[in-house]
Structures
1.
Amino acid sequence: MYTVPMLFVEDVIATSKWYQDFLGARSGHGGDEFEMLLGDKGSILQLHKIDDDHHDHSVDVSDPRGHGVVVVVYVDSAEAAFAKANEMKVEILSPLAFNEIAHMHEFTARDPNGYSLMVCEADWA
């Protein structure tokens, strides 16, 4: 079993490009209303246009986006992802550090739509 979060965004194409540039994700669908982003182990994230009215997902898409939810992404190198985030001038919510409790390096950033994204490197993942 696994989950694939769906984020409601203003601009699907721009957000898809941001995740591709930042994390190296690949487009699995493409389009301006819906996108499925792929990682090296399959689907990692779905993007859905926020004002697309032909789907009723019964979710509150009002601000703040993602309130109470953090999207967690495991990467091969948190240090490389942190350097890429700085290069792209991504808003950093918590800096790269080793989490003693979780036994992994991690940092938290904000995506262009206001969602919190925790980027982690774990030797057990």
Note: Helices lie at 12-23, 78-87.
2.
Amino acid sequence: VKKMLERGVIQRFALQVDYEAVGLNFTAFVAIRNDGGAHCREIAPRLRAIVAVQELHSVAGEYDFLAKVRTRHARDLEEVLY
């Protein structure tokens, strides 16, 4: 392992979280459209600041972002969305 690290074969180590063990039982993928008023570069940092947003991706087409959101229950997702 040490030699592979030194040669750059292994780039990083990662943890895998059991989200259910920490109470985050619900996962949703949310498509987000910017209808104007603010540039996407201004919106992205605000979306990333939401604790429930685990991943945020720019996408082409009708929507601007796809967010992976984890919450305790579907009801909690409503709070994130509003």
Note: The helical segments are 2-7, 40-48, 74-81.
